[in-house]
Amino acid sequence: MVLAYWAAGFCAVATSIQLASIGVAWVRCGRRTSPSAMPNPAPPVTLLRPVCGLEPFVRETLGSSFRLNYAQYEIIFCVARADDPAVPIVARLIDANPQMPARLLIGDQRIGANPKLNNLLKGWEAARHQWIVIADSNVLMARDSLQRLLGRWRDDTGIVCSMPLGSRPGNFWAELECAFLNTLQARFQYVSEALGFGFAQGKTMLFRRDLVERAGGIGALAAETAEDAATTKMVRALGRRVHLVDHPFDQPLGRRRAAEVWARQLRWARLRRASFPLLFLPEILVGGAMPSLALGLAATEYGVGVTGAVALFLLTWSGAEAALAWRAGWRLSPRLMAALVVRDLLLPVLWVAAWIGDGFVWHGNGMRAQRRIDPTQRPEFPDMTRRCYRIMLAALPTRKHSEPIR
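and the corresponding structure tokens:
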């Protein structure tokens, strides 16, 4: 009976956290960037778009670079190899838009294990402007994308990001990717920002060059396998914050294979585990699978119908996410409801898989999720995690440290 009591308590706490996080995202998604928040006059911007291979809707996503409603910006496309199949597409887009200052730079300058960062280095060095936006090739940029990014810059900002929103899924597996990207990952990014320890997302990032140079230059982002993890730590080291756009940019998905979705989520999970291991630990509790199991156990002990209790729980859990998707204008369909349940069943498996390996493949490049550790630097944790770490150290009388973690 004691076990049933704790199981019911865990389910209640998990549900409260789920609803509270949805409430935070609900309020956050209702914001509108005020035109007065934009720098005046609007500064010129360099838009860097790393390109590697052919992706769904690539002509449309790259073509959106030329349709931004912004007075002064340049576009630099970066490709590692001249034989990349996307090169002819980029060349045709540039030829079709002679009114725009756009260039295609080809070549690879290796500064680390991250091929995207190696590809971008030449573009960063060639950029003419102080404000630089890096947007992946599969991001569909809205006409006011630059206004959305610049409008979120504050005095304490180190970077402004837009997480990707899955859209236009062509089959169930793409719908499953929407379930991961939108009401789960985008939601928790908004919650993290609201709690004061937001983290960068590498799909679309607005940098100010002088801040990056102060932190050691673009090469400093090679300190981690993932450039967004390195960016997060760089921003925190500068004493600044990560801010998010009010309305994120779409990533049209098309059709997906189950193996593709799994491989992408496993890659991201392993990178999170490698870069922020203490923050990754509680991810085992994310999603409805563990609370459902706990509720089923409690219902059995208390003599309540297990099927009815779990069904009502899942309806509440997934229904709240569906309400958030409706509120925010994100992808919502009957097929998505099934995808939410499948996603939650996969989350514990994904968490375990992230701990039992380091390897992954990104655009044909075999890589490992690891970070380069500088022994002269102390680990960078958000304030909440740092406090927990100190409490754990205090509970271990045999461990002594010459100085506190700062």
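(Above: one complete record from the training split.) The chain is about 50% helix and 15% strand.
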